[in-house]
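pasting for ref
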Amino acid sequence: MDWSRAKTILILAFLALNLFLSYQLFQARGEQSQTRNITENTQEELEQLAREKNIHLQADIPQGLPQVTFLEARTTRMGKGWRLNPDGSYTKTFHPAVPIREKGLEQTLRSLVAHYDSYRLSNEDSTKTKRVYYQMNEDLPLFDARMQVDIKDGRIQSVNILHFTIKKGDRAGSQGVNALSALISLIEKGQIDKGDTVTHVKLGYHGQSYDAKARVLPPVWRIETQDQTYYVNALTGSSEIAP
């Protein structure tokens, strides 16, 4: 074997690989820079529009362009002792009310509610007598899959829950609408009134219920003001006002 020739070929191969990787890095940095510029420009546009409409941006607004896709889901049956409601949720009222254990509400609910560990407490929606939780999917909330726990005098009175079984799939994520653009769209359409305050902006999933059992859950930005909740589709930019 001609080792000198083989060595030369190997060196050339490494050089070609380095050039390719350098180009990939340069391209990635260029895309990041472009995204950063778009975000900065959109931020400036939003702030100017909010000033003109006297809309106060109190919420922490996520930056960047999310990679998102939709979910296919079916409502989960809760079993014996739970009453099925028309919207697909289930309710259980406890007689007598269940005392909260010394280890806390979390441990008590874990013993009472199947799928409890797939939910996360929403502090912004909860009060002293009402705890609200949302089912999570890869760290994003399913805004329709809500669990509400009613509490009185340290005892659990009732639980209302909607749980989804998510269909597994390999759907690739698409670059979605960012939160800044979603807010601009709502303001430009006049859906957020002059003088309103935007209090919360969060990415999650929400879909219309055409069938009590099966649902398609698009990714949405849930945007809340003092008086209203809006959902902006993070794939299409279309919006709806929560009833």
